[in-house]
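Team,

Forwarding the record for the chain on the shared tracking sheet. I've put the sequence and predicted structure together so nobody has to dig through attachments.
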Amino acid sequence: MSAIDHLPPLREVIETHELAARRSLGQNFLLDLNLTTKIARQAGSLTECDVLEIGPGPGGLTRGLLSEGARKVLAIEKDGRCIPALAEISDAYPGRLEVIEGDALEINPLSHLTPPIRVAANLPYNVGTELLVRWLTPKTWPPFWESLTLMFQKEVAERIIAQPGSKAYGRLAILSQWRADPKIVIQLPPEAFSPPPKVSSAVVHLNALAKPRYDANADTLSRVVAAAFNQRRKMLRSALKSLAPDIEDRLLAAGIKPTERAEQVHLEGFCALAREMDKT
């Protein structure tokens, strides 16, 4: 018996279904159901929400989400070996778990979900950052999700919440903090997983803002930030000179010293520069 439901312990599930983690799929399983439930709680109240989960594996977090009252969980799993184990969870929680076998990068889940929607996932390491960027850059804002509660390598989590002046500060921090309010809510050592990864992990919770923190055109901001951090060791007047012949004047108009480097500029400054770049 497990601590949260009447299904078998995860280690037993993995043995029964021969679910040895595959490095090619970025798999590292959390076996402690009390821990997966703790992660599920970080997503907030779930009783009136549908939850999108990517890479459920043997279903540890899935069970946590359902035991915490999620109205419905849509789980997208690429590894066909995990489908029978997830079917057992579906049987234990009738009508509340839908499983789609496939690649999350290629599936549009919205036809299977009813708002309000939250996303919670122990993301496979090999697709985690790409999925986050997609969720933060929809064509329209606010997005389909109210919050994201996501497991990353600790290094990636620190890049998401990084502040100016730190080595971790870069494009991911700008993107995450412009449209959401991110914070690290749980840190996990390698031994919490099976098999243990070589790095520590962290859960990041991001609440979507109703509108971006500062006014800016998304495409222009992305272009400016990419150019700035692609040459982060250079002064901005050099790193951004390809964007406009009068870049020094535009930097000054945005309140940024042309001799500063990208890692010294706050989000508000980059947004001000994006607005200056859109002026004729």
